[in-house]
């Protein structure tokens, strides 16, 4: 089978509906939204994460394959640091300050899923922390 395109989404497991943000993304490729939602909800019904990464491989004949990934980094950081809500104005109103040891713990956990060097994963974690309004101590 010839691959037409690969799509990446971050969705709530078991709660996909044929409305935005799913509908505009998948609709432009001709994917049947109801079939996708029922298939995705069935595959992800036992997953207890807030958000997960989803890869969709679309073939030329409009068949597709759904690959479920791991938990999103921001929801893992929320759980790890026991934060309910991130800053509404990152960079201006920062929530808290974390040390390098916690960044390292998050990076080591994340490195299990990512096939990258630990230093690259650490940079990704630091960038995510900055973008959600959490400062770090060097």
Automatic annotation (TrEMBL):
Stored Pfam families: Ribosomal_L11, Ribosomal_L11_N
A single GO BP: translation
Gene Ontology CC entries for this record: large ribosomal subunit
Any one GO molecular function term: structural constituent of ribosome
Keyword rRNA-binding annotated: yes
Every Large ribosomal subunit protein uL11 N-terminal domain range: 8-61
Large ribosomal subunit protein uL11 C-terminal domain segment(s): 74-135
PTM statement from Swiss-Prot or TrEMBL: One or more lysine residues are methylated.
Job of this protein: Forms part of the ribosomal stalk which helps the ribosome interact with GTP-bound translation factors.
Protein family membership: Belongs to the universal ribosomal protein uL11 family.
PANTHER family for this protein: 60S RIBOSOMAL PROTEIN L12, LARGE RIBOSOMAL SUBUNIT PROTEIN UL11M
Subunit structure: Part of the ribosomal stalk of the 50S ribosomal subunit. Interacts with L10 and the large rRNA to form the base of the stalk. L10 forms an elongated spine to which L12 dimers bind in a sequential fashion forming a multimeric L10(L12)X complex.
UniProt-recorded name of the protein: Large ribosomal subunit protein uL11
Organism phylogeny: Bacteria, Pseudomonadati, Pseudomonadota, Gammaproteobacteria, Oceanospirillales
